[in-house]
Amino acid sequence: MAQSPVLRCLTAPGNVVAQAPFALMCGLARKLRRLPVMNMKTVFEFVKGTLAGQNQFASGGLLLMIVGAIGVYVRSLPLRLWSWVIYQTTMMLTVTDDDTAFEWVKEWFLEQKFLKRVRWLDLDTSLRGDEAALIPAPGSHRFWYCGRPFWVWFSRKDETQGWTPRRLESLTFRTIGRDPKFLKQFVQEVIACHKRKITLASYLYHFDDGWRYVHAYTPRMLDSVILRPGEKEHLVEDIQTFRSSDERYRRLGVPYHRGYLLYGPPGTGKTSLVSALGAKFGMSIYAVNLTELNDRTLKVAISSVPANSVVLFEDIDCMKAGNRRPDTGEWADKAIQPLGNEKADPADRFGVTLSGLLNVVDGFHAPENVLFVMTTNKIEALDPALMRPGRIDYKLFLGKAAHVQKIELYRRFFPEISQDEASEFVESHFAETMAEFQGLLLSLEQEQSRSEAECEEATALV
């Protein structure tokens, strides 16, 4: 059979340079063709045969490869040994930013003295609102805690995969020891720090793949919310009684949560009252928008609400989950309607169902030691199943502004005005709700402030 030009060139008698590597490859190829299934025995025989063979290039190259492999392994032994020692003598704890505890750890940092010695810092306004806080920046940091050295790695990277890129952060702590009790003690101190914080102030959270802190939120003061005589005092007394009755609830086997319904026309102060109650009792508010959730995500959101909190369902009548179900006659009317060009409402398939809402309010997934507060403009639109005791335990109607409410609000804006002057102003200015009357007073105060400023400027010029 005729040989190819390349093969004739390589096997030419005068081409000594090309014949050596070619002979090496041919020898290895012949040996590999004779090898059976490659197990450890055949590999060992192949290596032994190659080293003992007459081909010095093959035996020398294989020996060099073996020596190099042994050298690489020996060089990695100290690192492997050090990694094994570290693994056996230290403990690690990792917290990622998709967990609520991530914010708790950053709060804990702010109370530690070693933070004064940290030189790489991040500016963070998510922990104290308008007040800027300095926390350790991404990188490695060291500190001492309870007589033990701690190393913490703050990792930050951007995830570009998916529809919406987001920043991923994590904190990894490492310390000496093998007993997990020490790490549990560290975690308990972080939790205690968080509890001290939430008892001092009220915060607002909304759910977006986890509860997110609303930075721009400022809670109302209870004194600034003016209701009819006795309404606010009775509501505050009811909440105080509930908060002091945890042992009685447990003894009786009753779920320890309470539901409140605030209903009435728009602008009567329902949301302001919820904010003021949260500030009064140091309870953070977790606002739930049912139109953005389904039964599964609602269950996840409510189950992660901490104790001593307010779960707010605002404008529950605008969300299909709380609407009254049609009676038998209405179902019959719907059944005979032509289906022609009707399209199914996506909310019916993907929104929160009434069953899903009831399960988180008064079912197995209802959290303990929380207040469920619902607001509505149309109480008649709510399903009766949502209104029964155990789900709604206290109802408060906030109607149109009463004469006495307007007088109290007017004297709050203008304390120097007498009762009679305030009553005369209220009678001469119409406002249906407290929100309208408050807007009127704000305009009046602004005009008064402008007039005073103009008088001061005129006096200064004289």
Separate helix tally = 17
CATH superfamily of the largest domain: P-loop containing nucleotide triphosphate hydrolases
- Alpha-carbon distance between the two ends: 122 Å
Average predicted local confidence, pLDDT: 79
Q: Quickly give the structural class.
A: alpha/beta
Tally of strands: 13
CATH topology of the largest domain: Rossmann fold
Beta-strand level of the residues, as a percent range?
15-25%
Oligomer: single chain
* Percent of residues in helices: 40-55%
Characterization of the model:
Helix 10 packs parallel to helix 13. It is elongated, with a radius of gyration of 37 Å. It has 3 domains: 108 residues, no CATH class; 157 residues, P-loop containing nucleotide triphosphate hydrolases (Rossmann fold), CATH 3.40.50; 59 residues, no CATH class. The protein has a 7-stranded mixed β-sheet with strand order 8-7-10-11-12-9-13, with helices on both faces. The N and C termini lie far apart (122 Å). It has 462 residues and is of the alpha/beta class. It has 17 helices and 13 strands.
Descriptors:
462 residues, alpha/beta, Rossmann fold, 7-stranded mixed sheet, 4-stranded antiparallel sheet, 17 helices, 13 strands, 47% helix, disordered N terminus
Describe the structure in brief:
This protein has 462 residues and is α/β, with parallel strands linked by helices. 47% of the residues lie in helices and 17% in strands. The chain is built from 17 helices and 13 strands.
